[in-house]
Amino acid sequence: MFSVKEAEGLSPFELGLFLEKSAKQAVKNSVPLNAGRGNPNWTAAAPREAFFLLGLFAVTEMERVRQGELSGMPARMEMLSRFELFLKGQTETPGKNLLERIWEKGEQFLGADKHDWLFELVDAITGDNYPNPDRVLKYTDQAVKAYLRKEIFSRTKRRV
Fold this sequence. Notes:
- This protein is mainly alpha-helical.
- It contains seven helices and no strands.
- It is elongated, with a radius of gyration of 22 Å.
């Protein structure tokens, strides 16, 4: 182990290697998480499962507006009832519970109309519509602001 005095003389790369080596020694019987240099050895599965499940629903909605080999933009009409049926049919599907909570929180925390929130989620995941002027979508903007308020401004003392 290095002392603080010895560590002060290390370059950032040497310090990083030292910390990596120390972490491996500290957890000899397990694999440490590596989030460095843009190539982590882990991923957060639950958000991805919810994301892809929403994407699957969005594709089924696009297929309803099929034009030959191309699918159209999702139709808003009766999408809410189809989404509720879609979720009910996903009894064992990973990501279902998180997607359901995200959808419900839009109404609870953002005051979003269920139809508007669902349409924005589906519109956003299909990536087929660019707002003009360039901006974040309405409810996405509200969700990001609420998150930042909670994480940055709601704590009186933060440890660094």
